[in-house]
Amino acid sequence: MEKITRVGVDLAKRVYQVHAVDSADLTVLARPMSPERFLSWAVGLPAGTVVAMESCSGAHHLARRLRLMGLDARLIAAHFIAPFRVQGASGKNDANDAAAICEAASRVRTRCVPVKTPEQQGWQGIHRLREGYKEERTACINRIRGLLAEFGLVFPQSPDALRRVLSDVLEDASNELPGTMRLALQRAQAHWRVLDDEIAWCDQQVKQHVRGNQAAARAAQLHGVGELTASALVAAVGDMHQFKSARQFSAWVGLVPSQNSSGGKNRLGRITKRGDDYLRTLLIQGAKSALLAAPKRSDRISQWLLQLRERAGWQKALVALANKNARILWAVLTRGIDYDPEHVPPVPQCKLPAQKEPHPA
User: Is pLDDT of 350 > 80?
Assistant: First the structure.
C-alpha cells in the first residue's frame, strides 16, 4: 500500500475495477472489487494519493467520500480517457479502462471535472426531473392527438388549442369515439394535468433557488438569462473561478467556433457544441427572447444585437448573444458585481496609442 501513488478506478453498479501504480508507473494492483471492499481498501492508501475515476453516475458521491479519507479524488471526462486505452476501441473492457484512467490522471494537461456538492447535485436533479416531465408531457399530448385523429378529430398543432377543446370533444356524443376510448382519453387528460402540476412545482423550486442564491440572482439580471438558466448555471458550474477566462467558460459550454486550422491559416466552422447540452440550449433559447425584445430596449447590447441581426442574420445573432452572455456571466460571477447593460470595457493597454516622450531641451 505504501508504494501506491496513483489509482485508476472504473466504476460500475456492483463492481469497481482498480488499477494502482507506484512512482515508477509499474502496476502494483489490478483487480475487481465490490464497492464496500474498495472503500475499506482505500482507507489504507497514503494520504494525498491520486484516485482517478471517470465522471459518471455515482462518481461525485464516491469522490466526496474519498476526499474525506484524505485522498486526492479526481473525476475525468470519458472523452479524455479513451485515447489512453492502448488496446484501442476493440480492446475495451473494465481492466483496460481502469488502466487508461490511471494513465490519463498522470498527464498534467488533463482537465478534471470539479466534484459537485450534494446541494449542486440536488438542484441539477430538479432540472433533470423537469426536462423529463416536459418530454413525457409532449409524448402524452402527441398520443392524445394521434388517437383523436384516428376518428377524424384533428385540431391545430398547439397544446393550448388542444387543451381548450379536449373536454368538449370527450363529452360530445355526436362524434365516433367509442365509450372505452373516451374513458382512456379522460385518463390521458388527467395524466396531462398531473404533468403540468409537476412542471409547475419544479418551476417554483427553481424560483426559490434563484431568490436564495446570490450568484443565481446576479446571473438572472442579464437579458436572455432567466431564472431557469441562472439556476442551471449555478448547479452545473458552481465556482466560476475554475475557468481562467471568459473565453474558456464559453468554450466549455460549446459556444465557440470549431477550428480546422493548419499552416498558419485559421479556418473557423460551426460552434463546437461541447459541454453541457442543457445549459447551452437554455442560453440560446434565452437569446431568442432577448432578440425579440431588443427593438423595445435602448441599451448598448440590444442595439449591437439588432445591428448584428441585420448584418449576419437571425441564427448567427442568437449564437453570438449566447456567447456574449456566457462571457458576461463569467465576469459578473468571478468579480461578484451586478450586471450593468451600459458597461463599457476599458481599452487594453496594448491597444492604446503610444505616447511620445518629450524632446530633451
Answer: no
